[in-house]
Design brief:
This protein is of the alpha+beta class. It has one domain. It contains two helices and twelve strands. The chain crosses the membrane at residues 6-26. Keywords: Membrane, Transmembrane, Transmembrane helix.
């Protein structure tokens, strides 16, 4: 009898472990929380069921306060201050693969850089202020090999003008 109960307990423990791993690999947003650090200048991630924390931000300045999860819950994104060139290359849109904690720079914007939104699991729309109540927006595939640099890309046909009034 004891052996049978032990086998049942071991079986359910193994099933629970595989379910947790499966959920983590399929939709990590169900198991990971992102938050600002106590100093309000860093971004941290923590797991809900295990004692694991990791600092993922490099700098202490952010364009927006929000961290956005992709619709499938596998990636999250945020703007980070990089200032590669004054006024022209200041803000980087970073994508973090929450399954493996890999950070990738998707977009480098200038001082006109504005909001961004996830359109689907693989596409982000970034917008920049074009002046006089007009924004210009561009859709970017998150699997691009190199980051899109706004100052070099504004002349391309990929940008769409949108009135905001």
């Amino acid at each position: 009898m004891f052996f049978r109960i032990t086998k049942i307990i071991i079986f359910f423990t193994i099933v629970a472990i595989f379910e947790i791993i499966g959920i983590y690999l399929y939709r990590p947003s169900l198991m990971i929380d992102t938050y600002r650090g106590d100093d309000e200048s860093s971004i941290w991630i923590t797991t809900r069921y295990f004692d694991f924390q990791k600092k993922i931000s490099d700098t202490d300045m952010y364009k927006f306060d929000d961290i956005q999860w992709s619709p499938n819950g596998r990636y999250f994104s945020y703007y980070d201050f990089v200032r590669l060139e004054w006024a022209d290359k200041e803000w980087a849109l970073k994508i973090v693969d929450a399954r493996f904690f890999i950070t990738k720079i998707l977009f480098i914007g200038d001082y006109h850089t504005g909001s961004y939104d996830w359109l689907d699991d693989n596409t982000i729309r970034v917008c920049a202020n074009a002046g006089s109540g007009v924004r210009q927006c561009r859709n970017i595939d998150i699997h691009e090999k190199q980051p899109v640099v706004a100052i070099d890309d504004y002349g391309s046909d990929a940008w769409q003008m949108i009135k905001t009034f």
